[in-house]
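Re: the request from the purification team.
They wanted to know what the chain is likely to look like in 3D before they choose a buffer screen. I agreed to run a prediction and write the result into the notebook, where they can find it.
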Amino acid sequence: MPSDPENREAGRWNFRPQVPLAQNPLFQWPPKPAAIFRWYAAFWLEVSTTTLCLVFALIAYFLVLPDLAEMQVLAWGWVAKVWLANLIPQVICAGTLHYWLIMRKGQGDKTKYDPRDQARSNGTFTFGNQVHDNMFWHIASGITLWTAAQVLVFWAMANGYAPAMLFPGNPLWFIAFFVLIPIWSSFHFYWIHRALHWPPLYKLAHSLHHRNVNVGPWSGISMHPVEHLLFYTNFLIHFVVPSHPLHVLFHGYVQSTHPVFSHSGFEEIVVNDKRQAKAGVFFHQLHHRYFECNYGTVEMPWDRWFGSYHDGSAQATGDTRARKKQMYT
């Protein structure tokens, strides 16, 4: 039977997955090859946000993105195409999830983490409305600065300032880099996120994202422009590592579309009482509830190594609150 503290911790949530939460077995000792295979198979051999990001990247590359030769000169025409290639999938994903989960309440509160609804008539948010606030910052700042980062990389590739790898020059690296991009993204996110919790940066920028204690699909990249500038320094890797334009597109969707799902507020998408897909990430939901924990992602064990890991248990909540009290006194 769960202890009283565990019962109280579970009672804070409408839905709490099994705890302690698992992390990537790649970084556990002794090695467990079967567990590692299952972990990565869930990302690459099933319908997942990762495979969805790859599909979006393929569509954008073959149907929208111009040749590198055209991108040697900055022009509103092709820049607008990149912006639309980013906007449309975001609106489809965030809009569909928001409609099903929040407007229609298509699955009620099944697998919903936080029992509360999205905030209305709340002066904390721009326009006094959580959803409108999130949509504005997500699109006006997020998609615009995401596009600007990619445009810079494409222009640099086209002009020889960034190393471009054109398929099939190195097919093994071409494939491997798709696997490494989410790992790099996790590594970069942890350190940028820790920096954003430095009080001056938090007050200036990151506090806007943390208005969302109870997150929703549009919360994903709803951030202050300063945070977006830091968040999208992730693309600087393409100035060092030889990349294909398809990698840059995939990188953008991993960086920006995955958060739509991880901030959905629901563990799973349920239709007709059947699980259809994984959606939210309780690991990050804990960060929005308790703030000073889980700065990274489950892909890399930085939080476990640096003492900020919340595994969903009552003990971890107590440790996080004690650490937060020590940090701010």
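For the purification team: Residues 4-17+50-114+122-327 form one domain.
Please add any questions underneath this entry.
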